[in-house]
Write a structure and sequence with these properties.
With 440 residues, the protein is of the alpha+beta class. The chain has 15 helices and twelve strands. It has a single domain, classed as Alpha-Beta Complex (Cathepsin B, Chain A), CATH 3.90.70. Helices cover 34% and strands 16% of the residues. The longest helix is centred in the first third of the chain and has 18 residues. It is globular.
Length: 440
């Protein structure tokens, strides 16, 4: 079973970067310039609503960083109620730096795909920064135009031979790292104030990282270590002692991401990935983990398979609707699960957005015979999108129906920008989740 799980993950990884076990990101097509729009407020009485931050709209294939930012913001807001807007652009900047400066083969363009584990490693090494501090001009923007313009600039530079241009330092040298950093700063249009701050923290050749150089002191210059960000997460030690889940607002983002490199991370409170079981009979326990986390007001990072032909006008992903159209544009995606709808054994239905506080009902919702009807995701495709959906209960949120979650769906080879229905294999909509160890 374990080898089968890893095989599925590698299939998803093959869609994108060869740098790590990375999840692809199905980016919504941009329709018009919304980079200057203010972020759309989203409020509702769902389980985790008190900790929701604004919906954003990705402009490139880095959904995984938007998901991790939403997750971080929710955990931090649960601890402090500050509602900070953390910068996906900051992590994207360093993701590109690592691809180029560490000698990976990038071909002719930067890979934008990644995974939760990739993001956790970036946070470890480079910390966290608020959007207002990294790119102040986009502090209240729903979509970052700087990310797409920087990507275009860097890809043009790579294709033009910038990595091996005359006078470029030798790959693998410290000077080469500084060479890459300088080009990234130029492509991103960073202010002198910001570049000077980055140099003071990391060095002009990035000879320092947060985890190695600032273990006993804060970096300053608006760069926060993961252990400087409070996060309301389950306390494994206290939960074991109490015999129930205890949410501790005194823990930090560092506790949640743990430590380590590559695919595996360790730590008492470190969150881990769990794949959707292949066997249908094992899936109820998987979804119970999602429910238990949401009942405690703790969001769940989730990777899933997107086929845009399954998207309905009321922002559901439905297998039934997909079957009327056939396979469409597809890709991997990562979002944050915030709520769900379900039918209990007594036939009662509880909808996403319906606040449930009765402990007896919550226990019934966790019953082995309860049927999950849909899971609601906070997405990164923007809030009001009449070009894609018109009747969303919560703008920017999408409900993945049970038939879509469990499939089987047709994952098809892309030919000329669309799915080839003659070259498909079966897969599920849901792929995996990232949860606290108390829910394993």
């Amino acid at each position: 079973m374990e080898s089968m799980k890893k095989t599925r993950w590698m299939i998803l990884a093959a869609m994108v970067s060869s740098l790590s076990m990375a999840a692809g990101c199905a980016a919504e097509e941009a329709t018009g310039d919304t980079a200057g729009d203010e972020e759309s407020a989203t409020t509702d009485d769902i389980t985790s609503s008190a900790n929701l931050t604004e919906v954003k709209r990705q402009s490139i294939g880095n959904c995984w960083l938007y998901a991790v930012a939403s997750w971080t913001e929710a955990l931090e807001k649960g601890a402090t109620q500050s509602g900070e807007n953390y910068s996906e652009s900051y992590w994207t900047f360093w993701h590109w730096f690592e691809q180029l400066a560490n000698g990976y083969s990038v071909g002719t363009e930067i890979q934008t795909g990644g995974s939760y584990m990739t993001a956790a490693g970036l946070i470890d090494r480079y910390g966290v920064m608020a959007e207002k501090d990294f790119i102040p001009e986009e502090a209240t923007s729903e979509m970052s135009s700087r990310q797409s313009s920087a990507l275009n600039a860097m890809n043009a530079w790579i294709k033009g031979g910038g990595l091996t241009a005359a006078g470029a330092p030798k790959k693998g040298t410290v000077e080469y790292r500084g060479y890459i950093l300088k080009q990234l700063e130029k492509a991103w249009g960073l202010s002198t104030t910001r570049t000077d701050a980055l140099h003071r923290v990391f060095g002009v050749n990035v000879t320092r990282t947060v985890d190695k150089s600032f273990a006993s002191r804060k970096p300053g210059y608006q760069v926060l270590r993961a252990k400087d960000v409070f996060a309301a997460i389950p306390d494994v030690t206290q939960s074991k002692a109490a015999g129930k889940v205890v949410i501790n607002p005194k823990l930090t983002l560092q506790d949640a991401i743990g430590s380590g490199t590559g695919y595996y991370r360790s730590g008492t409170h470190a969150w881990t990935e769990i794949n959707l079981p292949y066997q249908g009979g094992e899936r109820r326990a998987f979804y119970q983990k999602v429910q238990r986390s949401l009942h405690d007001g703790v969001p769940v990072v989730s990777s899933w398979f997107v086929d845009f032909n399954a998207l309905t006008s009321d922002s559901h992903f439905s297998k039934k609707f997909l079957e009327t159209k056939g396979p469409g544009r597809q890709g991997g995606h990562m979002t944050v699960a915030m709520d769900y709808s379900a039918k209990t054994p007594d036939g009662k239905t509880y909808a996403a957005g319906q606040d449930v506080t009765d402990k007896a009902v919550l226990a019934q919702l966790l019953d082995a015979k309860t049927e999950i009807l849909s899971i609601r995701m906070k997405n990164s495709w923007g809030a009001n999108r009449p070009d894609r959906w018109q009747q969303a209960q919560m703008p920017g949120f999408h409900d993945l129906d049970a038939d879509y979650l469990n499939g089987p769906l047709k994952r098809c080879k892309e030919v000329n920008g669309t799915s080839d229905p003659k070259q498909c294999s079966d897969d599920t909509g849901m792929q995996d989740i990232v949860v606290s160890p108390v829910y394993r």
